[in-house]
Amino acid sequence: MSEIADRYRRIAARFTERVEGVPDGRWDDPAPPEGWAARDVVGHLATWLPDYFYGRWDLDAPLPPDAAVDPVGAWRSLDAVLQAALDDPEVAGRRRSTHMGEHSFEDQIDMICTPDVLAHTWDLARATGQDEALDPVEVHRFVSSMEPLDELLRTSGHYGPRVPVPDDADEQTRMIAFLGRQP
To answer: Is the pTM above the cut of 0.85?
Structure first.
């Protein structure tokens, strides 16, 4: 297993814990970002990731169930497809031209999917009253790779305005604020 596959597996496992740990009746609770409910966090991933990855990298996989109806099933289905693809050296190494240049499947997972799953782990935990702590090594990796791209990411529309935090804020707080969430 590659370092990228291992990183995705670890981060996805923590998201899976949050998905499977949502208490009864909490799927419709408000979630970051504003206007979302807890199930929308899963729905976001279960929509954009298959749209981006399945066809582009020729993944022969069914679309996940509708997260509005079955958020746990939607995540489990999507996660199984992505992990199987990362575990297959032929698929993991497939190269495609993307809007970010030519990259392998696993490189694209590492650049855009894994950080998104990390961020949304916090969102789901916040929405449903679960443990919000994220892996500090991965938080550091996120902060150090994303902060230099601040202006580009803000103008792309993928991130809202950064929330101000004290200069001595820990890295997870800085990451959450960078995403435009109230830590």
So the answer is: yes
